[in-house]
Each structure stands twice: as structure tokens, then as C-alpha cells.
Request: fold
Amino acid sequence: MRAITKCIDAGTKYCPCKLAEIGQCIVCSQCGGKQSCSCSNWNGACIYQEFLNNKMKAKSMRGSYRCKVSTVIPFDDVMFVRAEVPYELELELVSPGSFVFARINENPFFDTPISVLFTEFSTGTIGLAVITKGVKTIPFQALKGGDFLFLRGPYFNGIFGQHDLQRQMNGNALVLARGIGFLPSLSVIAALHHQHNETKIFLDWSNFNVKLLAFFNDFFELKSERLTLLGPSGMTAEAKEMIRNTLEENINFIHIGGSDFLVCQVVNFLKECRYTDIRLSCCNNAKLCCGEGICGACTQNDSAQIVRRLCKEQIDPYHMAERNPQ
Reply:
């Protein structure tokens, strides 16, 4: 796994963060405990200078917002929630990969990361989909319109390959999504359309909630085709044939919405076909917990045995296969 050495928060109002305060900054060598400057990724502002200006302290961390729920639609074990949020928070949640930590009580131990499906400024709301299977999320089953949610955010690193996604304009794109991976991919699809790309969408419904996927297909008026992407032994023959045929149609960008295993299967197939010049993005499936790179739940070692904090650090999707998840 190769990092692009880009912190998603670098140069924002949340930088420098607590990592810089304890000498563990992802980007700035001096905020990372070294004496000399060897800035690994210029983001338009000197992080060390910002750190000095802030009296060697981190900037304020994200806040929590008490937000009213306007709509709840249950789909068996999945809840679609539309919540009213402050304008300043909604404004920061428009980019692909945005997510929040949500809970329905004041106990921060119940924070769970949820991708922002869409923002709707005309109503001042955002859309979320919560799978109610664990201790943190089962309480969402009792949620109804008029209740309140606690949302902590904004966070931005839900998608890897954001740099390539931002550069993808007036081209041809392919979206491969499987099951729940379709939901965080909705913001990517919206961005591709906004950037005037012709986009083909192939969706593997897998064993995920069919009614929910159909709902969002209709909600966004998407023209997706059903395709089985994975079988018992990896990527299916029909998926490989589709990708091979599609790449011959001048596709220059692929988004993979699914597990790390699916990402690795697609990346290895692209390498096998010598199509490694295709721009890629994919879902960030790290185990997010605090969102600030502090708790360590999202950390993984790359091939050089360097610790990467995946809640904040961008990773090159082409090198996801190095992790070889099973």
C-alpha cells in the first residue's frame, strides 16, 4: 500500500491538528518531530508556520451538532434518514467522500461513521443511510421524524483517489459498485455527472437490501445495469469481459464502490491487462473510530512498514492490492 502522503485536512481550518501537537503530523516534517523542513506535499499553506502562529497548539477539533430528523424511511435493517443541519456544516459536506459520526444520544462512545449520500440546500438537509446491526446502530431503529440526532463533523476521507476524481472532467467514467458500496459511491456519481462525464454504472446487488438500492436508483434517476462482480473464486468472467470491453471505449476513470477485496480484484485485473494509466478512486473501508488519527483503529502499515492513518491520509487505489485482504 502506497500513500500519496496527503492529509485530507492539510491547509483547512482543522490544521494543524492534535497529531502535530504531539509530533506525529502526516505531512509536515517539522510538526512530525524533525528539525529540518522536507515538506512532502505543499497544500498552499505552511503547516509549521500555522502551528507557530497558533502558539504551538492544535486548531479547534470538529464539533457536535444536535440536528432534527425530518424524514425516516425503514428498509428492513437499513434506515434512510434525512436530517436538518446548520448551513456551515452542510456547506462542508458537499464533496465526495464526506461523512459524519452519528449517534442518537449524548454518549460519544456511540459515534458511528456514516457517509453523506447527498446535501440539499433548498431544504437545509443531508441524507444518511444507517445499517442497524451493531450496538452503536441498533438504537437507530427507534428513530422517527421530529427526533434529534447528534452529528460530529465534517470529515472528508471516505473516498481514496480524490485527486484523480477532481481532475476527471469531460471524459468517460465507469462505476463498479457492490451492495453497500453503492451508497458512498452516490456522491462520486454525482460529482462525475457535475463534471460532465459520460458515466456507465454497473451494480452488483449481492445480498444487500434490494428495496434500498432500487430506492436510490430511482431517487437519483440513475441508469445502472445489474452485473455480478464477484463469485466464489474472485471476479467473475462476465465482469472481466465487461471491463475489458468498456476500456476499449476510451474509459479514462474507474470508481470502485465495494470491499477492499473487490478493489484488489479490479486493480489486479487492470494490471494484468496493462491499463494502469486509468484514473482510479475507491471507497475507504478502514475501521474508522475517532476520525482524527488519534485512537489507532484506522492505522495500517504500508509495504515500508510506515504507519498510515487512513481516516486522514489518502491512499493510491492502485496499491491497495499490496494489502491482499482475504
The chain has a mean pLDDT of 91. DSSP finds eight helices and 19 strands in the chain. Residues 300 and 306 are 8 Å apart (CA to CA). Helices lie at 18-21, 47-53, 87-92, 162-167, 182-194, 210-219, 237-247, 260-272.
